[in-house]
User: Fold these one by one.
Assistant:
Number 1:
Amino acid sequence: MSVHPISATLSTTALALRRAGCVFAEDEALLLHEAAASPDELSALVERRVAGLPLEHVLGWAEFRGRRFAVDTGVFVPRRRTEFLVAQAAALAPRRAVVVDLCCGSGALGVALADASDTAELHACDVEPAAVRCARRNVGDLGEVYEGDLFDPLPGRLRGRVDVLLANVPYVPTADVELLPAEARVHEPRVALDGGGDGLDVMRRVAAVAPEWLAPGGSLLVEAGERQRDTAVEVLRAAGLTPRVLVSEELYATVLVGTALRIT
Ligand SMILES: C[S@@+](CC[C@H](N)C(=O)[O-])C[C@H]1O[C@@H](n2cnc3c(N)ncnc32)[C@H](O)[C@@H]1O
């Protein structure tokens, strides 16, 4: 019986990955073997992973809410914990929702929400050209992806009409960026991580303008660190939104929802 040369080296690959510090070496080895079309390609993939590139950048995709999203090098890898934010958004989205995914990175959040809810319109934007290119591939004809600073590139006709405003903004305090694992610190763009002095600078900018774009009763959803929770609540309240905090112990996720007043 002939043995495929790639499958013959599965345990060797796992060993190389384990030596490089990969905790889930066996699982990763399987994924790399699946992805490689030839022994040369496998060597190249393993080499990149051993050199410290995030697995998702090596594979070119990340799994988010059970679906594979393209993630190019230089684009923030959507995190498992952010699935909680999308689940909360799906729970509060009205029928025929107008959804904006601000600071969209790969675009995974907006697409996952469209999968899970009745989305009439999806608009996504990011300031990073690499993220915008990647999001355009993931969003496809489900919606529009724009490039620019926060709300700047959005069409004006969305003002006052947004039912769900997803904004997984960067929220790592500047001084903590150096403490992040190398996979994030070295391989994800600083603009995707650094949230300024207390980590909430971008959130403050989003919250300040969000009420202009939200529909009556519409909600802004942001993620924050547990220690940022109380300040983040005040940020939303100061912007005129009604804040709520939602926590997933399982995913170690803290989500803040800021809801605009309903007109009665
Ligand atoms: C933490 S990442 C989140 C990406 C994506 N939402 C996700 O959860 O996978 C933050 C994203 O915000 C983008 N960003 C940072 N500052 C921005 C700004 N001023 N305007 C638009 N996008 C910005 C970054 O390029 C990055 O893609």
Number 2:
Amino acid sequence: MTGSPPRECQLRPARPEDEVVILEWRNAPWGVALSGTGRAVSPEEHGRWFSQTLAGVARRLFVIEEQGRPVGMIRYDVVGKAAVEITILVLPERVGAGLGTAAFRHSLALMAGWRPLRTILARVLRSNSRSLAFFRHLGFAIVEDDGTSSLVRLELAVGGGDDLPPEGIQI
Ligand SMILES: CC(C)(COP(=O)(O)OP(=O)(O)OC[C@H]1O[C@@H](n2cnc3c(N)ncnc32)[C@H](O)[C@@H]1OP(=O)(O)O)[C@@H](O)C(=O)NCCC(=O)NCCS
């Protein structure tokens, strides 16, 4: 671990008031670099996307908080029957402290009961060695590689996390 240990962390579903900070992250230079499109989004475009996201039909968004301050997010997009694609982000100044690992593990509990879930995929740029190491560490395996990015996959055991509370948890 490189960062100081996490303190008083929580993972909770995104709320309407998170719209501003999520847009800020999306349009920060590192957010743009991570995005599939490589461009910033307008507040209007983001507003529409965020409302759909909160509706929670095809996507779920969770915020990682440390001492009440948002420091990251986890997003799951439905990509198939019982399959979702994960996007995870920890603020640059807090990477390497274990937050991503803890948040991912707890996000599975928050996902339980939403819809059947067996497969989690992630698309990672090959140049993003930290992220590849992160997913490998969590048990994801590389299933495709087109030379630029890798598709990693985790198959879940059935029934994991069903006994945990749905509305937000200490991590
Ligand atoms: C990928 C990311 C979410 C990992 O979160 P994190 O909180 O930094 O990860 P953790 O501290 O829990 O680290 C878990 C493992 O990831 C890898 N890792 C984390 N920080 C690393 C670093 N600085 N260098 C190399 N590997 C690193 C290691 O394997 C680490 O295991 P270790 O602690 O036993 O060494 C975070 O680095 C991030 O937000 N990156 C930018 C966004 C991104 O690339 N997202 C993934 C694409 S969806």
